[in-house]
Amino acid sequence: MSQHSVNAQGWTPAPKPGLIPLRPLGFGTILGKSFAALRHNPKVLFGFAVVVQLIVMVVMLAVIGAVSFATLSRLSTVRPGSDEWLTLYLGSMAFIGLAGLLMGLFSVAFTAIVQGIVAADVRAAVLRESATLGVLWRRVRPAVWRLIGYTLLYGAAGVVAAVLIIGVPFVAIAVPTGFDGPGIAFAIIAMLAGVAGLVVLSVWIGTKLMLVPSLLVLEGAGVRAAIVRSWRLTRGRFWFAFGIVFLIGAIMYVGTQAISGIGGLITSLFGPVLNPTGSTELSLSVSMVVGLVITQVLVVVLQSISSVVQATAGALVFIDCRMRYEGLDQDLMAAMERRAAGYDDGTDPFRVDPARAVRAGFRPAPTVVPYPVPPGPVPGHPAPQGYAGAPAPQGYSTMPAGYPVAPPAYPAAPPAYPAAPPAPAPAAPPPGSAAPATPPAPPAPIPPAPQSPGVAPAPDEGWTAPGSDRP
Fold first, then answer.
1. Under 8 Å CB-to-CB from 324, ≥6 apart: which residues?
2. For 363-396, how does the pLDDT look when each residue is reduced to its tens digit (9 = 90+)?
3. SS3 category, 24
4. What secondary structure letter does DSSP report for 381?
5. What is the rounded CA–CA span in Å between residue 113 and residue 106?
6. Most buried of the four, 94, 331, 394, 408, by CB within 10 Å?
7. What pLDDT does 208 receive?
8. Averaged over 9-29, what is the pLDDT?
9. DSSP state of 433
């Protein structure tokens, strides 16, 4: 019976790591690799994801702008303040709102697809697989409708939360008072408090659910199962994940503001160059519009890059959480070793092992064991016994609670050694006879130290007391 192994064809070198090292990731690693992924596969992440989002934003602005211009331009044909003007105004607002809603759904669909493409690309980069757009699309296509449905559900929940937290308190306070001075002031305060609470709630829920797109694509989970698993996997990693997303957002925000400022400065400086005579206001307006459009295009590109980088960070946080809690790093290393040795069985290393999956009530173990702990008996272990009258051995009081190895047991008393037999008592002399006195033996003479040939012995000067004047 033959048994296959990875070494059946001889020695196989260790597989090279992909985008990330196959071990739990640190903060700096995830932050750096989130940006490095753009360079790792620029055709997909920059060429497709960024361009698609740029096109979506441009289409949204163009459609909403065209609808707004077409509807609001009719207001100039009627007298302001008349019933006909009010009817046209309300109809214009309704058309603009409907166009915005349709474009929002259009943007949501493409944004969800881009998030799925980014998660699939990160998976391919980790395993050093081919990451063409066709390969990634085949992996994302089964989860497309789940991605779109989850994104729409998340957006609808945000709208409902905004209405309940901001709109309802404002109306409940302002309407009974007739929108007078004190009433409107209290309503504004309640609205600001609601906005602050909504921001905190959205940050918390958004961070807890940031792994859902990766779970939908890489594990094939349903929407409900993905929400539950994301909530459990981020337990104990909330501030870690939030810090990464916040720092990426801050970096891209600073870059966007810098581009906007530089674009405005260039437009103001080169406006006279584009319109040297300054004869008409139309030419000056055209030059300003051209500069503004160029600036806004650059801003949209930076915002698209920011969304791609944040989606990459979410996929890397998902991989890190599974490495820490479910041993995904071992599965990834085993899969790469099998492929390097030519024994790839097609098993997906990202599949969920039910025996290792996080469950309800999961609590992550502390990453750092406090050392030293206060001295005293270790909970769950018997106190070590020392020798009689001796202190307990040192070193066991600093063992952390729940240490799996019990301390060795010491004997209660040292081992007893056999006592020497008693010496026999001397025989008593017979009555009337005296015991002969035995003189003590003289001490053995000390032989003189040997002298070297031809050297005279040192004269005996006798003993000299310490501190005497005798030399």
1. 24, 237, 364
2. 776 655 455 555 555 555 555 554 444 444 444 4
3. coil
4. S
5. 11
6. 331
7. 93
8. 74
9. -
